[in-house]
Protein backbone atom coordinates (compact mmCIF):
# COMPACT_ATOMS: atom_id res chain seq x y z
CA UNK A 1 0.00 0.00 0.00
CA UNK A 2 1.31 3.42 -0.96
CA UNK A 3 2.05 5.99 1.73
CA UNK A 4 -0.47 8.86 1.37
CA UNK A 5 0.68 12.16 -0.12
CA UNK A 6 -0.83 13.95 2.89
CA UNK A 7 -0.86 12.53 6.43
CA UNK A 8 -2.67 13.83 9.50
CA UNK A 9 -1.74 13.99 13.17
CA UNK A 10 -5.28 14.16 14.53
CA UNK A 11 -4.25 14.70 18.17
CA UNK A 12 -1.97 17.64 17.40
CA UNK A 13 -4.25 18.83 14.55
CA UNK A 14 -1.35 18.98 12.12
CA UNK A 15 -1.10 18.07 8.46
CA UNK A 16 2.05 16.94 6.67
CA UNK A 17 2.73 16.76 2.93
CA UNK A 18 4.97 13.94 1.79
CA UNK A 19 8.20 15.19 0.21
CA UNK A 20 11.08 13.38 -1.38
CA UNK A 21 12.22 9.90 -0.42
CA UNK A 22 15.30 9.95 1.84
CA UNK A 23 16.07 6.27 2.38
CA UNK A 24 14.96 3.00 3.95
CA UNK A 25 15.87 0.75 6.87
CA UNK A 26 14.85 -2.69 8.08
CA UNK A 27 11.20 -1.76 8.73
CA UNK A 28 10.93 1.91 7.89
CA UNK A 29 11.01 4.24 4.92
CA UNK A 30 12.09 7.83 5.42
CA UNK A 31 10.58 10.82 3.65
CA UNK A 32 10.65 14.56 3.95
CA UNK A 33 7.41 15.62 5.63
CA UNK A 34 6.39 19.28 5.35
CA UNK A 35 4.12 20.61 8.08
CA UNK A 36 1.46 22.65 6.28
CA UNK A 37 0.90 25.55 8.70
CA UNK A 38 4.58 26.43 9.18
CA UNK A 39 6.21 24.84 6.10
CA UNK A 40 8.76 23.33 8.48
CA UNK A 41 10.47 20.31 6.93
CA UNK A 42 11.02 17.19 9.02
CA UNK A 43 12.33 13.70 8.42
CA UNK A 44 9.40 11.32 8.62
CA UNK A 45 10.16 7.73 9.57
CA UNK A 46 7.21 5.68 8.28
CA UNK A 47 6.61 2.10 9.46
CA UNK A 48 3.90 -0.09 7.97
CA UNK A 49 1.82 -1.72 10.69
CA UNK A 50 1.62 -4.84 8.55
CA UNK A 51 5.32 -5.39 9.28
CA UNK A 52 4.75 -5.34 13.05
CA UNK A 53 2.79 -8.54 13.45
CA UNK A 54 4.54 -10.02 16.49
CA UNK A 55 4.08 -8.58 19.97
CA UNK A 56 7.85 -8.29 20.52
CA UNK A 57 8.15 -6.22 17.32
CA UNK A 58 5.47 -3.85 18.55
CA UNK A 59 7.16 -3.66 21.94
CA UNK A 60 10.53 -2.84 20.36
CA UNK A 61 8.89 -0.07 18.36
CA UNK A 62 7.32 1.36 21.53
CA UNK A 63 10.68 1.21 23.29
CA UNK A 64 12.44 2.91 20.38
CA UNK A 65 9.93 5.78 20.49
CA UNK A 66 10.17 6.08 24.30
CA UNK A 67 13.98 6.10 24.29
CA UNK A 68 14.32 8.53 21.38
CA UNK A 69 11.81 11.01 22.79
CA UNK A 70 13.67 11.02 26.14
CA UNK A 71 17.02 11.99 24.55
CA UNK A 72 18.08 15.56 23.91
CA UNK A 73 21.64 16.01 22.64
CA UNK A 74 23.23 18.18 20.00
CA UNK A 75 24.79 15.17 18.27
CA UNK A 76 21.59 13.09 18.12
CA UNK A 77 18.73 13.71 15.73
CA UNK A 78 15.97 15.26 17.82
CA UNK A 79 12.57 13.65 18.26
CA UNK A 80 9.60 15.88 17.44
CA UNK A 81 6.47 13.74 17.69
CA UNK A 82 4.80 10.56 16.54
CA UNK A 83 1.32 9.52 15.48
CA UNK A 84 -0.38 6.77 13.55
CA UNK A 85 -3.24 6.06 11.19
CA UNK A 86 -4.90 2.84 10.12
CA UNK A 87 -1.92 1.55 8.16
CA UNK A 88 1.24 3.36 9.30
CA UNK A 89 3.18 4.72 12.26
CA UNK A 90 4.84 8.09 11.64
CA UNK A 91 7.86 9.23 13.69
CA UNK A 92 8.61 12.91 13.08
CA UNK A 93 12.31 13.70 13.48
CA UNK A 94 14.68 16.59 12.95
CA UNK A 95 15.82 16.79 9.32
CA UNK A 96 19.61 16.75 9.43
CA UNK A 97 21.15 19.74 7.68
CA UNK A 98 24.12 17.63 6.60
CA UNK A 99 23.33 15.57 3.53
CA UNK A 100 25.21 12.56 2.16
CA UNK A 101 27.78 14.76 0.46
CA UNK A 102 30.27 13.65 3.11
CA UNK A 103 29.63 9.97 2.48
CA UNK A 104 32.46 9.55 -0.02
CA UNK A 105 34.87 11.19 2.38
CA UNK A 106 33.69 8.89 5.15
CA UNK A 107 34.28 5.78 3.05
CA UNK A 108 37.68 7.13 2.05
CA UNK A 109 38.70 7.52 5.68
CA UNK A 110 37.45 4.01 6.44
CA UNK A 111 39.55 2.56 3.60
CA UNK A 112 42.65 4.42 4.78
CA UNK A 113 41.98 3.61 8.43
CA UNK A 114 41.90 7.29 9.36
CA UNK A 115 40.20 8.02 12.65
CA UNK A 116 40.53 10.33 15.64
CA UNK A 117 40.14 9.32 19.26
CA UNK A 118 38.90 12.18 21.49
CA UNK A 119 41.59 13.47 23.90
CA UNK A 120 39.54 12.66 27.00
CA UNK A 121 39.65 8.89 26.35
CA UNK A 122 41.97 7.05 28.80
CA UNK A 123 45.31 5.80 27.35
CA UNK A 124 44.59 2.09 27.87
CA UNK A 125 41.35 2.38 25.87
CA UNK A 126 43.17 4.30 23.10
CA UNK A 127 45.80 1.57 22.91
CA UNK A 128 43.12 -1.12 22.85
CA UNK A 129 41.28 0.61 19.99
CA UNK A 130 44.51 1.07 18.02
CA UNK A 131 45.32 -2.63 18.33
CA UNK A 132 41.86 -3.63 17.16
CA UNK A 133 41.82 -1.25 14.18
CA UNK A 134 45.20 -2.00 12.65
CA UNK A 135 45.00 -1.88 8.85
CA UNK A 136 46.66 -5.26 8.35
CA UNK A 137 44.32 -8.00 9.68
CA UNK A 138 47.32 -10.29 10.23
CA UNK A 139 48.74 -8.11 12.98
CA UNK A 140 45.45 -7.59 14.80
CA UNK A 141 45.26 -9.42 18.14
CA UNK A 142 43.65 -12.85 18.33
CA UNK A 143 40.55 -13.35 20.45
CA UNK A 144 42.72 -14.89 23.16
CA UNK A 145 44.98 -11.83 23.19
CA UNK A 146 41.96 -9.51 23.22
CA UNK A 147 40.60 -11.19 26.33
CA UNK A 148 44.04 -10.97 27.96
CA UNK A 149 44.49 -7.28 27.15
CA UNK A 150 45.07 -5.05 30.19
CA UNK A 151 41.98 -3.02 29.35
CA UNK A 152 39.84 -6.16 29.59
CA UNK A 153 41.56 -7.76 32.57
CA UNK A 154 42.01 -4.81 34.90
CA UNK A 155 38.35 -3.88 35.05
CA UNK A 156 35.04 -5.56 35.67
CA UNK A 157 31.52 -5.59 34.34
CA UNK A 158 28.66 -7.85 35.41
CA UNK A 159 27.32 -10.45 33.03
CA UNK A 160 24.12 -8.44 32.72
CA UNK A 161 22.85 -4.94 33.45
CA UNK A 162 20.10 -4.36 36.02
CA UNK A 163 16.62 -3.49 34.83
CA UNK A 164 17.06 -0.06 36.42
CA UNK A 165 19.27 0.84 33.44
CA UNK A 166 16.02 1.30 31.51
CA UNK A 167 15.49 4.47 33.52
CA UNK A 168 18.87 5.51 34.96
CA UNK A 169 22.56 5.13 34.14
CA UNK A 170 24.31 2.51 36.30
CA UNK A 171 26.78 3.29 39.05
CA UNK A 172 30.36 3.05 37.78
CA UNK A 173 33.15 1.37 39.67
CA UNK A 174 36.09 3.15 41.26
CA UNK A 175 38.06 3.73 38.06
CA UNK A 176 35.13 5.53 36.49
CA UNK A 177 34.11 2.94 33.90
CA UNK A 178 33.13 -0.69 33.46
CA UNK A 179 34.95 -3.56 31.78
CA UNK A 180 33.62 -6.86 30.46
CA UNK A 181 35.84 -9.28 32.36
CA UNK A 182 34.58 -11.14 35.45
CA UNK A 183 36.51 -11.02 38.73
CA UNK A 184 39.46 -13.40 39.07
CA UNK A 185 42.27 -13.93 41.55
CA UNK A 186 44.26 -11.44 39.51
CA UNK A 187 41.35 -9.00 39.35
CA UNK A 188 39.42 -8.93 42.60
CA UNK A 189 35.69 -8.37 42.60
CA UNK A 190 34.68 -4.74 43.06
CA UNK A 191 31.80 -5.74 45.29
CA UNK A 192 33.06 -3.67 48.18
CA UNK A 193 31.74 -0.55 49.92
CA UNK A 194 31.68 2.45 47.60
CA UNK A 195 33.75 4.43 50.07
CA UNK A 196 36.65 1.97 49.62
CA UNK A 197 36.47 2.44 45.88
CA UNK A 198 36.56 6.21 46.21
CA UNK A 199 39.46 6.03 48.66
CA UNK A 200 41.47 3.76 46.37
CA UNK A 201 40.95 6.26 43.61
CA UNK A 202 42.61 8.89 45.79
CA UNK A 203 45.32 6.58 47.08
CA UNK A 204 43.91 6.78 50.61
CA UNK A 205 43.21 3.82 52.87
CA UNK A 206 40.76 4.86 55.59
CA UNK A 207 39.75 2.50 58.36
CA UNK A 208 38.61 5.00 60.95
CA UNK A 209 35.16 4.66 62.45
CA UNK A 210 32.78 7.61 62.46
CA UNK A 211 33.94 8.71 65.91
CA UNK A 212 37.60 8.53 64.86
CA UNK A 213 36.78 10.22 61.58
CA UNK A 214 35.89 13.41 63.41
CA UNK A 215 39.50 13.65 64.58
CA UNK A 216 40.97 12.98 61.15
CA UNK A 217 41.78 15.72 58.71
CA UNK A 218 38.98 16.14 56.19
CA UNK A 219 41.19 15.79 53.05
CA UNK A 220 41.91 12.19 54.05
CA UNK A 221 38.22 11.38 54.38
CA UNK A 222 36.54 13.22 51.55
CA UNK A 223 36.29 11.03 48.45
CA UNK A 224 36.54 12.64 45.07
CA UNK A 225 33.35 14.45 44.22
CA UNK A 226 31.53 13.35 41.11
CA UNK A 227 30.00 16.35 39.37
CA UNK A 228 26.51 15.94 38.04
CA UNK A 229 26.32 15.80 34.26
CA UNK A 230 25.04 18.93 32.57
CA UNK A 231 24.11 18.93 28.91
CA UNK A 232 24.91 22.31 27.37
CA UNK A 233 23.58 24.13 30.40
CA UNK A 234 20.09 22.66 30.07
CA UNK A 235 18.14 21.88 33.23
CA UNK A 236 17.22 18.20 33.52
CA UNK A 237 13.46 17.84 33.94
CA UNK A 238 13.79 14.07 34.45
CA UNK A 239 11.29 13.29 31.67
CA UNK A 240 8.43 15.38 33.07
CA UNK A 241 7.64 16.86 29.68
CA UNK A 242 7.51 13.38 28.12
CA UNK A 243 5.21 12.15 30.86
CA UNK A 244 2.96 15.18 30.48
CA UNK A 245 2.56 14.51 26.75
CA UNK A 246 1.84 10.83 27.43
CA UNK A 247 -0.85 11.74 29.96
CA UNK A 248 -2.35 14.35 27.65
CA UNK A 249 -2.68 11.72 24.95
CA UNK A 250 -4.25 9.05 27.14
CA UNK A 251 -6.67 11.51 28.76
CA UNK A 252 -7.68 12.88 25.35
CA UNK A 253 -8.62 9.33 24.30
CA UNK A 254 -11.36 9.30 27.02
CA UNK A 255 -10.64 5.66 27.92
CA UNK A 256 -13.43 5.52 30.51
CA UNK A 257 -15.94 5.92 27.65
CA UNK A 258 -14.76 2.90 25.65
CA UNK A 259 -17.45 0.31 24.97
CA UNK A 260 -16.79 -2.24 26.22
CA UNK A 261 -14.03 -1.42 28.71
CA UNK A 262 -11.62 -4.37 28.90
CA UNK A 263 -9.07 -3.02 31.36
CA UNK A 264 -7.53 -6.49 31.82
CA UNK A 265 -6.25 -6.18 28.25
CA UNK A 266 -4.55 -2.90 29.19
CA UNK A 267 -2.53 -4.56 31.95
CA UNK A 268 1.17 -5.31 31.46
CA UNK A 269 3.02 -6.68 34.53
CA UNK A 270 6.31 -6.32 32.61
CA UNK A 271 5.97 -2.55 33.03
CA UNK A 272 5.80 -2.72 36.85
CA UNK A 273 7.96 0.11 38.22
CA UNK A 274 11.47 -0.65 39.39
CA UNK A 275 11.39 1.84 42.25
CA UNK A 276 8.63 3.55 44.18
CA UNK A 277 8.34 5.25 47.55
CA UNK A 278 7.09 2.72 50.08
CA UNK A 279 7.17 4.96 53.18
CA UNK A 280 7.61 8.67 53.86
CA UNK A 281 7.81 11.04 56.77
CA UNK A 282 7.53 14.82 56.56
CA UNK A 283 9.70 16.78 59.00
CA UNK A 284 10.05 19.87 56.83
CA UNK A 285 9.07 21.98 59.81
CA UNK A 286 12.65 21.37 60.99
CA UNK A 287 14.76 19.12 58.78
CA UNK A 288 13.32 17.80 55.54
CA UNK A 289 11.28 14.99 54.02
CA UNK A 290 12.43 11.41 54.42
CA UNK A 291 11.38 8.33 52.49
CA UNK A 292 12.03 4.64 52.00
CA UNK A 293 12.19 3.12 48.52
CA UNK A 294 10.74 -0.31 47.76
CA UNK A 295 14.22 -1.89 48.04
CA UNK A 296 14.46 -0.61 51.66
CA UNK A 297 17.01 2.09 50.88
CA UNK A 298 16.46 5.35 52.77
CA UNK A 299 16.65 8.91 51.51
CA UNK A 300 16.19 12.46 52.78
CA UNK A 301 15.66 15.66 50.87
CA UNK A 302 16.81 18.27 53.39
CA UNK A 303 15.37 21.76 53.69
CA UNK A 304 18.65 23.17 52.35
CA UNK A 305 18.02 21.18 49.11
CA UNK A 306 20.86 18.73 49.73
CA UNK A 307 20.13 15.02 49.61
CA UNK A 308 21.39 11.90 51.31
CA UNK A 309 20.67 8.22 50.64
CA UNK A 310 21.53 5.06 52.56
CA UNK A 311 21.70 2.05 50.25
CA UNK A 312 19.70 -1.08 51.01
CA UNK A 313 22.88 -2.77 52.31
CA UNK A 314 22.67 -0.41 55.31
CA UNK A 315 26.31 0.61 54.84
CA UNK A 316 26.96 2.69 51.72
CA UNK A 317 25.95 6.34 51.58
CA UNK A 318 25.45 8.86 48.81
CA UNK A 319 25.44 12.59 49.57
CA UNK A 320 24.38 15.10 46.92
CA UNK A 321 25.10 18.80 47.19
CA UNK A 322 22.71 21.51 46.04
CA UNK A 323 24.47 21.73 42.67
CA UNK A 324 24.13 17.96 42.13
CA UNK A 325 27.72 17.01 42.97
CA UNK A 326 27.79 13.46 44.38
CA UNK A 327 29.95 12.09 47.21
CA UNK A 328 30.10 8.46 48.35
CA UNK A 329 30.83 7.44 51.94
CA UNK A 330 30.01 4.66 54.40
CA UNK A 331 27.82 4.75 57.48
CA UNK A 332 30.88 4.22 59.68
CA UNK A 333 33.26 6.47 57.74
CA UNK A 334 32.29 9.97 56.61
CA UNK A 335 33.37 13.62 57.04
CA UNK A 336 32.50 15.29 60.32
CA UNK A 337 30.60 17.94 58.36
CA UNK A 338 27.92 15.30 57.66
CA UNK A 339 27.58 14.15 61.27
CA UNK A 340 24.26 15.92 61.92
CA UNK A 341 22.69 14.84 58.63
CA UNK A 342 23.70 11.21 59.08
CA UNK A 343 22.35 11.30 62.64
CA UNK A 344 19.05 12.52 61.18
CA UNK A 345 19.21 9.79 58.54
CA UNK A 346 19.42 7.16 61.27
CA UNK A 347 16.51 8.77 63.10
CA UNK A 348 14.34 8.86 59.97
CA UNK A 349 15.23 5.23 59.20
CA UNK A 350 14.35 4.03 62.69
CA UNK A 351 11.08 5.96 62.79
CA UNK A 352 9.89 4.58 59.44
CA UNK A 353 10.94 1.02 60.27
CA UNK A 354 9.13 1.07 63.61
CA UNK A 355 5.96 3.02 62.83
CA UNK A 356 5.05 2.98 59.13
CA UNK A 357 3.48 0.35 56.87
CA UNK A 358 5.37 -0.46 53.67
CA UNK A 359 3.57 0.11 50.37
CA UNK A 360 3.93 -2.88 48.07
CA UNK A 361 5.43 -5.16 50.68
CA UNK A 362 4.07 -8.25 48.91
CA UNK A 363 4.91 -7.13 45.40
CA UNK A 364 7.73 -9.07 43.79
CA UNK A 365 10.52 -6.74 42.69
CA UNK A 366 13.68 -7.36 40.68
CA UNK A 367 16.88 -7.94 42.60
CA UNK A 368 18.84 -4.71 43.05
CA UNK A 369 22.39 -5.26 41.82
CA UNK A 370 25.61 -3.55 42.84
CA UNK A 371 25.67 -1.17 39.90
CA UNK A 372 22.03 -0.14 40.22
CA UNK A 373 21.82 3.63 40.62
CA UNK A 374 19.30 4.68 43.22
CA UNK A 375 16.92 7.43 42.20
CA UNK A 376 16.69 10.41 44.54
CA UNK A 377 13.75 12.60 45.39
CA UNK A 378 13.99 15.44 42.89
CA UNK A 379 10.85 17.39 43.79
CA UNK A 380 7.66 17.12 45.81
CA UNK A 381 4.66 19.08 47.00
CA UNK A 382 1.32 18.65 48.70
CA UNK A 383 -2.11 19.48 47.38
CA UNK A 384 -5.38 19.39 49.30
CA UNK A 385 -5.95 15.84 48.05
CA UNK A 386 -2.54 14.21 47.75
CA UNK A 387 1.21 14.29 48.19
CA UNK A 388 3.24 14.21 44.98
CA UNK A 389 6.78 12.84 44.57
CA UNK A 390 9.08 13.12 41.54
CA UNK A 391 12.14 10.86 41.46
CA UNK A 392 15.28 11.37 39.39
CA UNK A 393 14.52 8.25 37.32
CA UNK A 394 11.45 10.05 35.95
CA UNK A 395 8.89 8.31 38.15
CA UNK A 396 6.04 10.45 39.49
CA UNK A 397 4.12 9.04 42.46
CA UNK A 398 0.84 10.43 43.77
CA UNK A 399 -0.46 9.25 47.17
CA UNK A 400 -4.09 10.24 47.72
CA UNK A 401 -4.98 11.12 51.30
CA UNK A 402 -8.65 10.21 51.57
CA UNK A 403 -8.73 6.64 50.26
CA UNK A 404 -4.96 5.88 50.38
CA UNK A 405 -4.92 4.91 46.70
CA UNK A 406 -1.75 5.63 44.75
CA UNK A 407 -0.54 6.19 41.21
CA UNK A 408 3.02 5.42 40.10
CA UNK A 409 3.72 6.86 36.65
CA UNK A 410 6.76 5.92 34.57
CA UNK A 411 7.51 7.83 31.34
CA UNK A 412 10.19 5.33 30.28
CA UNK A 413 7.79 2.38 30.46
CA UNK A 414 4.87 4.48 29.22
CA UNK A 415 2.88 2.99 32.06
CA UNK A 416 0.93 3.67 35.25
CA UNK A 417 0.57 1.48 38.32
CA UNK A 418 -2.64 1.90 40.29
CA UNK A 419 -2.72 0.78 43.94
CA UNK A 420 -6.30 0.55 45.15
CA UNK A 421 -7.80 0.72 48.65
CA UNK A 422 -7.03 -2.97 49.15
CA UNK A 423 -3.37 -2.34 48.22
CA UNK A 424 -3.66 -4.38 45.03
CA UNK A 425 -1.10 -3.46 42.35
CA UNK A 426 -2.20 -3.21 38.71
CA UNK A 427 0.11 -1.88 36.00
CA UNK A 428 -1.27 -0.58 32.70
CA UNK A 429 0.42 0.62 29.51
CA UNK A 430 -0.83 4.01 28.34
CA UNK A 431 -1.06 2.75 24.76
CA UNK A 432 -3.21 -0.20 25.87
CA UNK A 433 -5.44 2.03 27.98
CA UNK A 434 -6.14 4.11 24.88
CA UNK A 435 -7.05 0.96 22.97
CA UNK A 436 -9.01 -1.07 25.53
CA UNK A 437 -10.23 1.56 27.99
CA UNK A 438 -9.92 1.83 31.75
CA UNK A 439 -12.22 2.09 34.75
CA UNK A 440 -13.57 5.49 35.71
CA UNK A 441 -11.69 5.51 39.04
CA UNK A 442 -8.34 5.20 37.23
CA UNK A 443 -9.30 7.61 34.44
CA UNK A 444 -10.22 10.31 36.97
CA UNK A 445 -6.86 9.91 38.67
CA UNK A 446 -5.03 10.07 35.35
CA UNK A 447 -6.66 13.42 34.62
CA UNK A 448 -5.55 14.59 38.06
CA UNK A 449 -2.04 13.25 37.35
CA UNK A 450 -1.87 15.23 34.10
CA UNK A 451 -2.57 18.47 36.02
CA UNK A 452 -0.11 17.51 38.76
CA UNK A 453 2.69 16.81 36.27
CA UNK A 454 2.02 20.13 34.56
CA UNK A 455 2.43 21.84 37.93
CA UNK A 456 5.61 19.87 38.64
CA UNK A 457 7.13 21.23 35.43
CA UNK A 458 7.15 24.72 36.92
CA UNK A 459 7.40 23.90 40.64
CA UNK A 460 10.61 24.96 42.37
CA UNK A 461 11.75 23.50 45.66
CA UNK A 462 11.76 25.92 48.55
CA UNK A 463 13.16 25.64 52.05
CA UNK A 464 10.00 27.41 53.28
CA UNK A 465 7.78 24.34 52.85
CA UNK A 466 6.75 23.30 56.34
CA UNK A 467 3.98 20.83 57.04
CA UNK A 468 5.03 18.30 59.67
CA UNK A 469 2.75 15.36 58.78
CA UNK A 470 3.74 11.69 58.68
CA UNK A 471 2.33 8.69 56.83
UniProtKB/TrEMBL annotation:
Q: Which residue numbers delimit the POLO box domain?
A: 276-354, 376-458
Q: Extract the Gene3D superfamilies matched here.
A: Phosphorylase Kinase, domain 1 (3.30.200.20), POLO box domain (3.30.1120.30), Transferase(Phosphotransferase) domain 1 (1.10.510.10)
Q: Name one GO biological process term.
A: mitotic spindle organization
Query: What is this enzyme's class at the first EC digit?
Result: transferase
User: What GO terms fall under cellular component here?
Assistant: centrosome; cytoplasm; kinetochore; nucleus; spindle pole
Keywords for the protein's UniProt record, in alphabetical order: ATP-binding, Kinase, Nucleotide-binding, Repeat, Serine/threonine-protein kinase, Transferase
Membrane-crossing residue ranges in chain numbering: none
The catalysed reaction is: L-threonyl-[protein] + ATP = O-phospho-L-threonyl-[protein] + ADP + H(+)
EC number(s) given by UniProt: 2.7.11.21
Q: Which GO terms describe its molecular function?
A: ATP binding; protein serine/threonine kinase activity
Key word Magnesium present = no
Q: Give the matching InterPro entries.
A: Kinase-like_dom_sf (IPR011009), POLO_box_1 (IPR033701), POLO_box_2 (IPR033695), POLO_box_dom (IPR000959), POLO_box_dom_sf (IPR036947), Prot_kinase_dom (IPR000719), Protein_kinase_ATP_BS (IPR017441)
Q: Would the keyword Cell cycle be found if you checked this record's keyword annotation?
A: no
The UniProt annotation places ATP binding at 49
Q: Which residues form the Protein kinase domain?
A: 16-381
Q: Which Pfam families match?
A: Pkinase, POLO_box
Q: Which PROSITE patterns match?
A: POLO_BOX, PROTEIN_KINASE_ATP, PROTEIN_KINASE_DOM
- Report the family membership: Belongs to the protein kinase superfamily. Ser/Thr protein kinase family. CDC5/Polo subfamily.
Q: What is this protein called?
A: Serine/threonine-protein kinase PLK
Amino acid sequence: MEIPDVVYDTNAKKKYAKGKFLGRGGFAKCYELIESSSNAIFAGKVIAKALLQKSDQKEKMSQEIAIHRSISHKHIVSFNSYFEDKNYIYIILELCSKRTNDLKDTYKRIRHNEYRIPPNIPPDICLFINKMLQSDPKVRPTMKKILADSYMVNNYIPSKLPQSCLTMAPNFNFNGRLSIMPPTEKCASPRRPLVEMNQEKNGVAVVAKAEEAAKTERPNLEPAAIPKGVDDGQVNDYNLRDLFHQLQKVVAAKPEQKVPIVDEEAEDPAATPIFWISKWVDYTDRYGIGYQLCDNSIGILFNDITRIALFADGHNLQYIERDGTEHFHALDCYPQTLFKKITLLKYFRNYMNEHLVKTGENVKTNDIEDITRLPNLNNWFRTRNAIVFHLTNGTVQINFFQDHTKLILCPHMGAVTYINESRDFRTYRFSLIEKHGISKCVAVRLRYARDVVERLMSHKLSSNTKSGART
